[in-house]
Specification:
Structural class of chain B: alpha/beta
CATH class of chain B: Alpha Beta
Radius of gyration of chain B: 19 Å
Oligomer: heterodimer
Number of domains of chain A: 2
Helix content of chain B: 25-40%
Strand content of chain A: 25-35%
Order of helices and strands of chain A: EHEEEEEHEHEEEE
Largest sheet of chain B: 9 strands, mixed
Shape of chain B: globular
Radius of gyration of chain A: 17 Å
Chain lengths: 168, 302
């Protein structure tokens, strides 16, 4: 089955079941979350993964027959088109609480800067790349979104429509 | 005759009704239990310095007397959603159970669809339909921010809703919160009465009947359909129920509601309706200090 930009196609389980040569597999997606962020694969046991458009992955709770021609299916989840796969803010808010690696915890002021969409110089001991960004809220270490850490700075990846000035 | 005057004969304490219609409505929020608990939201609102007041009929709703819902941390995280009290009624009445499949026939901008998703514990499936692509964009924004993973969105006219994308299975429940003349939103939209037009009421009433019929057809025997509007006009409420009771195999059933309300009217002007439409509930602004609303619960025949 070719990539059809208006339909959702369920990800093949493994390479052996893959029909479109560049489509990600469920196995590769689970490995990405586990290897990069330490999110256990069983976190997604109840969810199916879908692609619509090249490299745009969605996550859904149900199991409709594939392909399915609808406007949206669950939530946008992961972008796999570039060399470095990028989780969405929504996926990190929902599942980033399970992350144990590549998590950067921000102070209140730093979190406000991040949500406003600004880059900031911060110390980080780990690899460069996409990080799960957290802060403290109501006694929880709550994931805010995705940051890109390069050259000594954390670059906010909060989409324009989600940015807020929460400096009160 | 136009609203509010045209409802003098059916509204108790009409002068209080008219006065309430002129008072602005404070913001309200619903706790999104997919992402946080009521206690966590209380704590987060305390930390943000946002004043909130509980409502006595629904543990997951708060009124914000001084603030708009959108500019604070719990909102950014999708822990809360701005939703008027009465808007939370129909999904609560539908009462979907985790794992069930539910159709939201007129879903945008998604307050009720995401409430259904949360009531399902983000399990099962909510098929959220709307015919307006711009409003679907708002619906998508809300499902994403609230972290619902069990909502599928379809762009179509609810009157012609197809079960095909999901293998043809009928739904366990359906929510039919139809487009209406919106008289009950007068406290939020002060132009609602000025824009009122009898020909619009007559036209939209036909659409409402067709959508409710489709919902009954698309729901399993023994399943539940909830019909609601945010308007007072019997043409859009009891008359729609009366029509569908005659055309489809379904019946109205009793339900509990913790808001003060009145029974559906069985007579309006020259029309008489099926006596069972009295099982529907009318919510007026002056009884609970809310917006106006109408809600009915139907069971689909075997």
């Amino acid at each position: 089955m070719s990539n059809d930009s208006t339909k959702f196609t369920r990800l093949p389980a493994t390479d052996a079941e893959r029909e479109a040569p560049k489509r990600a597999t469920r196995e590769a997606v689970l490995d990405f979350w586990a290897d990069r962020f330490g999110v256990p694969p069983e976190t997604f046991d109840e969810h199916t993964f879908w692609e619509r458009g090249k490299g745009k992955l969605w996550l859904y709770r149900g199991e409709p027959p594939s392909p399915v021609d609808v406007e949206a299916l669950g939530m946008t989840f992961l972008r796999t088109r570039q060399e470095h796969w990028k989780p969405t803010l929504e996926a990190v808010q929902r599942f980033g609480g399970h992350a144990t690696e590549r998590v950067i915890h921000l102070s209140g002021d730093e979190a406000e800067t991040f949500v406003a969409g600004h880059d900031q110089e911060l110390d980080w001991d780990g690899d460069w790349g996409y990080l799960v960004v957290t802060h403290d809220l109501a006694g929880r270490r709550e994931p805010v979104g995705v940051g890109l850490y390069v050259y000594g700075e954390l670059r906010s990846q909060v989409p324009k429509g989600r940015r807020r000035d929460l400096d009160t | 005759m136009e609203p509010p005057e045209r409802y003098r004969a059916i509204v108790d304490d009409f002068e209080a009704f008219r006065a309430a219609c002129e008072r602005p409505l404070p913001s309200a929020i619903r706790v999104n239990t997919i992402k946080a608990t009521v206690d966590e939201v209380r704590q987060a609102l305390d930390e943000a310095g946002v004043t909130y007041e509980p409502v006595d009929w629904h543990a997951e709703l708060f009124v914000l007397p001084d603030a708009s819902p959108g500019a604070n941390w719990p909102y950014f995280h999708g822990w809360i959603h701005g939703q008027e009290e009465v808007s939370a009624v129909p999904a609560a009445v539908l009462d979907p159970q985790p794992g069930e499949r539910v159709w939201d026939a007129c879903a945008a901008p998604g307050s009720k669809a995401t409430q259904l998703a949360a009531l399902l514990d983000d399990r099962g499936e909510v098929v959220a339909t709307d015919n307006n692509i711009g409003r679907i964009s708002a619906l998508r924004t809300n499902t994403e921010r609230l972290g619902a993973t069990n909502v599928a969105v379809t762009h179509e006219d609810a009157r012609n809703h197809t079960l095909k994308p999901f293998g043809g299975a009928e739904y366990d429940r359906a929510l039919v919160d139809v487009p209406c003349s919106c008289e009950g939103t007068i406290r939020k939209n002060p132009d609602a009465f000025d824009e009122w037009d009898m020909s619009h009421v007559g036209g939209i009433s036909g659409v409402q009947k067709d959508i409710l019929e489709r919902a009954v057809q698309a729901t399993k025997p023994g399943g539940t359909v909830v019909y609601s509007t945010c308007t007072f006009a019997p043409e859009e409420n009891e008359a729609v129920l009366d029509h569908v009771l005659a055309s489809e195999g379904c019946e109205l059933v009793e339900f509990d509601l913790g808001l003060d309300h009145r029974a559906g009217v069985t007579e309006w002007r020259d029309d008489e309706f099926d006596p069972s439409v009295s099982l529907a509930k009318r919510i007026y602004p002056h009884f609970n200090d809310t917006g106006g609303f109408f809600c009915a619960k139907l069971e689909v025949g075997e």
